[in-house]
Amino acid sequence: MVVIVILGLLVSIVAPNVLQNQDRAMVEKARADISVLEQALDMYKLDNHSYPSTDQGLDALVKKPTSSPEPRNYRSDGYIKRLPQDPWGNAYQYLQPGEHGPYDLYSTGADGDEGGEGLAGDIGNW
Questions:
Q1: Which end of the chain has a smaller Cβ tally under 10 Å, C or N?
Q2: How far apart are CA 115 and CA 120, in angstroms?
Q3: What is the DSSP string of 78-106?
Q4: If DSSP codes are grouped into helix, strand and coil, which group holds residue 25?
Q5: What is the DSSP letter of 123?
């Protein structure tokens, strides 16, 4: 019986720390994905003299857009092989022009809704 109580206490101490580290890892994964997408967007701009429009979106990094403004020097194999989803299974959001810079690129966080705080907050390139 004493062993069960001790194990229960250990689990109650260790479990919150493990879960908190997992949450931090998911936020860091989102930041890493955003960094990769930023690099691909910068390469797109170097080749085509502008970022993809909001309507073209991040899909422009995978396949050549056919809507205006059409890219002039699009790479035959695109800029990334596939678009990642954020760690919570949602699409990354892209706005061009952005409110925080030439474009905004962000995850809507754990809750999947814009805004919020903590884990539910947006994780962006700003």
A1: N
A2: 8
A3: -SSSSPPBPTTS-BPEEESS-SSSS-EEE
A4: helix
A5: E
The residue whose two tokens read 């931090």 is 24
Q: Is the pTM of this model over 0.70?
A: yes
CATH annotation of 2-124: 3.30.700.10
- Read off the tokens for 51: 């970022």
For 21-58, the pLDDT digits (tens) are 788 999 999 999 999 999 999 999 999 999 999 999 99
Q: Are 63 and 75 contacting, i.e. CB atoms less than 8 angstroms apart?
A: no
DSSP-assigned letter for residue 107: E
Cα R_g (the chain), whole angstroms: 20
Per the structure block, which two tokens stand in for 47?
Answer: 């080749």
Residue 62: C-alpha distances to residues 12, 18, 79, 93 (Å): 45, 36, 6, 15
